[in-house]
Amino acid sequence: MIAIVETGGKQYKVTEGRYVDIELLDAKEGDSIELDKVLMIVDGENTKIGQPYLEGAKITGKLLKNDRDKKILVYKMRRKKGYRRKNGHRQPFSRLMVESISVA
């Protein structure tokens, strides 16, 4: 079973038994998480699409860890002027293990 879920202003494709890295959640490691903004569910031949969300559908999972992503470098430069700025950024994320996808 595959689902498209919205969290943190972004959409993610999730599958039962797999983990997904999503925007940082305000929860501790090991907490149980329920996501109810499910946009679409595909179960073999059956496809259910919400308008915009499916009523009664939810994703349950366990928060594995809160971490930070790899560093990306931001470099700004003005030619011939001696202006150079180098900055790094590490985006925080939450790793969620999807345990079940259910439809009411």
Strand order of the largest sheet: 2-1-5-6
Number of helices: 0
In angstroms, what separates the terminal alpha carbons?
Answer: 15 Å
H/E topology pattern:
EEEEEEEEEE
Please give the largest β-sheet.
4 strands, antiparallel
Instruction: State which percent range the strand residues make up.
Output: over 45%
Poorly predicted sequence stretches spanning 5 or more consecutive residues: none
- Class inferred from helices and paired strands: mainly beta
The overall average pLDDT, rounded, is: 97
Number of separate strands: 10
Alpha carbon gyration radius: 18 Å
Count of the domains:
1
**What kind of assembly state do the chains in view correspond to?**
single chain
Shape: elongated
Estimate the helix proportion, in percent: under 10%
Labels describing this entry:
single chain; 104 residues; mainly beta; four-stranded antiparallel beta sheet; 10 strands; elongated
Description of the structure:
With 104 residues, this protein is mainly beta. It has one domain (2-102). The chain contains no helices and 10 strands. Strands 2-1-5-6 form a 4-stranded antiparallel beta sheet, with no helix packed on it. It is elongated, with a radius of gyration of 18 Å. The mean pLDDT is 97.
